[in-house]
Amino acid sequence: MTTLITVSDPDGVIGTCDARCYNAKGGECHCVCYGLNHAKGENFAITFTDHLADIIAAQIKIRFPTVTLITFHQEQLYYPFHAPIDKLQTDAHQTQNDGADGDEPHG
Question: 68 and 9 in contact (C-beta within 8 Å)?
C-alpha cells in the first residue's frame, strides 16, 4: 500500500492518503486529499498528487492549522511550515494560475 500524503503535527501523524482512499469502491472520502484521489486508482492518484503537491499542501494547512510537516510520495518532498497561512494561500493561487493566461509556451 503506497501512502501518497502524510500529514503530521507536533504530536505525530494526523492524517494520510493511501490505498484505502485511491482504491475505494465508493463512499465519501475523509482523508487529507479532500477527495481528490478518492476511487481514482493508484497511478492517477500518484500523478495527480505529485503535480499538485503545493496546492494540496496549502489546502491541508488551512484545514489543519497545527500542521508542521507534510510528506508527499514521489521524492519525499517535505513542507515544513513557517510561512503565514496567507502566504501559503497566495503561493497556491499563483501555482494554480501559472500559464492560465496562454502566454506560457507549451512543451
Answer: yes
Cα separations in angstroms, 80 against 84, 99, 103: 12, 27, 32
Q: Which of 87, 88, 21 is nearest to 53 (CA)?
A: 88
Q: What's the one-letter identity of residue 8?
A: S
CB 56 within 8 A of CB 89: no
Tell me the pLDDT tens digit for each residue of 52-63.
888 888 888 888
The secondary structure element, H or E, covering residue 88 is helix 85-97
pTM for this model (two decimals): 0.67
Residue 63: φ, ψ to 5°: -70, -35
CA–CA gap between residue 100 and residue 83 (Å, rounded): 25
| Domain ranges within the chain, ordered by starting residue | 5-97
Share of the chain above pLDDT 90, in %: 25
